[in-house]
Design a protein that fits this description.
By secondary structure, the chain is an alpha/beta fold. It is built from 8 helices and 6 strands. The protein has a 6-stranded parallel β-sheet, with helices on both faces.
Length: 189
């Protein structure tokens, strides 16, 4: 029998489709943004707003956005294959005040999990170490690089227009969850 792998997974833009926020941004800010327009993680420049304005908007809109988030393509198929083989710890920058919304979304979408940790910040290093993660899945470039280098584990980076900077050797860029699943299934410790 194959040894269980402790998978660490970011939620937004990784488990959820990276386009999740776009309709809400377009409607509220009267824009016509597509995913290809988002070439950096910080949306304030694209939206022409301050950081404070962005976080005020997020505070008002996060629960509805997260409640209705679409699952990333092929994610369900990958986890269905792994659900009896591996351990799933979700580590997200979402604030803990969104725990009930997050857990309800997981249950509504039949997404298996062993633990969900909402940090309220983007620095995930302590959580990755605490949970002894073997492989992490991320969409934020600097998080992927920091986790790979500091924790000395492979990080699967879900390819998006906003994470195109160069990556270190332990970061593996994939186009979708099919490629991610193939990489994990062939991984040798």
């Amino acid at each position: 029998m194959r040894e269980q792998i402790r998978l660490g997974l970011d939620i937004d833009g990784t488990v959820t489709c990276p386009t999740t926020f776009i309709p809400y941004l377009n409607k509220h800010f009267n824009k016509n943004i597509s995913l290809n327009d988002i070439t950096q993680y910080d949306l304030t420049v694209l939206l022409d707003i301050t950081t404070e304005q962005f976080w005020e908007w997020m505070k008002d809109h996060e629960p509805i956005i997260y409640s209705n988030a679409k699952i990333a393509n092929y994610f369900t198929e990958a986890l269905d294959h792994w659900k009896d083989l591996h351990h799933f710890t979700y580590i997200s920058a979402r604030g803990n005040h969104l725990f009930d919304v997050t857990k309800t979304w997981f249950q509504k979408n039949n997404i298996p999990y062993h633990h969900i940790e909402l940090l309220g910040q983007h620095d995930k290093l302590k959580a990755v170490k605490k949970h002894n993660i073997d492989i992490f899945f991320e969409d934020k470039h600097d998080n992927a690089c920091d986790i790979a280098e500091e924790c000395n584990i492979p990080v699967i980076l879900m390819d998006t227009p906003y994470n195109q900077d160069p990556i270190p050797k332990q970061v593996v860029r994939v186009k979708n969850w099919n490629e991610a699943a193939e990489w994990v299934n062939n991984w040798k410790r």
